[in-house]
Structure formats: structure tokens, C-alpha cells
Recover the amino acids of this structure.
């Protein structure tokens, strides 16, 4: 997914919990960068992660962007326990319905992937 994605329908400020942000950064370092993670409880949705943007895409529609977390404000972050502010871009008219649950599902899926890597049982992700 290119960084010059289509124009967002709406843009919101968002605060990502430190545990979620740190887990994703760790997965990008330990598993792959970029990294594609399926969201099991969100049929057809995946998130394509890289250092600059996390695109939630619809795999049933040629990876059409649904929403994206981007513009992470990490320069002023003084500790790993601090939450990270970013911008949430909505590309689909119904993206607001899943913006919270998609992030929760992403964090859970990434934690599972990291556990599988730690135990050597495979990564469960696409690279």
C-alpha cells in the first residue's frame, strides 16, 4: 500500500496505548517490515504495517483501504510507557464502526504472532 493513499473521508486525532504501539514496533523488528496481519474477527480485513503507517485494508476488494493510523508522534516520547498520538484516516463511509475494534483486534493478533515467534511455532502472518 503506497503512502500516497486516496483522500480520507474523515481524519481524527487518535491516541494509541503504549502496549499496542510497542508490540507492533517489536513485531516489525522481529517478524518482518512491512508486515501483513489478518484480523480474524473482522472478515476479510487485514492490516499492512510499516514504520510510518498502518493500513487496514479490505482483502475482498483488492486491498482497498478502509482506515489508517499514521503520522505517529514519537519524537517527543520520553519513555516506552507513554501513549503515542497519531492521525486516524477513514477511507470508507462505515470505517467509523470498526475503528476501535479493529485496533483491539490488531493488538491481539500481533501479540499472538509475537508469542508464536517466541515459541517457534510459526509467525501466522504474511510478509
Amino acid at each position: 500500500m503506497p503512502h500516497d493513499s486516496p483522500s480520507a473521508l474523515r481524519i481524527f486525532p487518535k491516541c494509541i496505548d503504549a502496549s499496542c504501539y510497542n508490540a507492533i514496533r517489536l513485531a516489525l523488528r522481529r517478524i518482518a517490515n512491512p508486515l501483513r496481519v489478518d484480523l480474524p474477527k473482522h472478515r476479510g480485513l487485514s492490516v499492512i504495517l510499516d514504520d510510518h503507517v498502518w493500513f487496514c485494508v479490505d482483502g475482498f476488494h483488492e486491498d482497498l483501504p478502509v482506515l489508517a493510523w499514521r503520522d505517529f508522534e514519537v519524537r517527543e516520547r520520553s519513555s516506552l510507557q507513554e501513549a503515542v498520538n497519531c492521525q486516524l484516516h477513514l477511507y470508507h463511509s462505515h470505517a467509523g464502526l470498526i475503528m476501535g475494534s479493529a485496533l483491539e483486534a490488531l493488538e491481539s493478533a500481533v501479540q499472538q504472532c509475537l508469542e508464536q515467534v517466541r515459541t517457534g511455532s510459526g509467525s501466522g502472518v504474511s510478509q
Residues 10-119 form a domain with the TATA-Binding Protein fold (CATH 3.30.310).
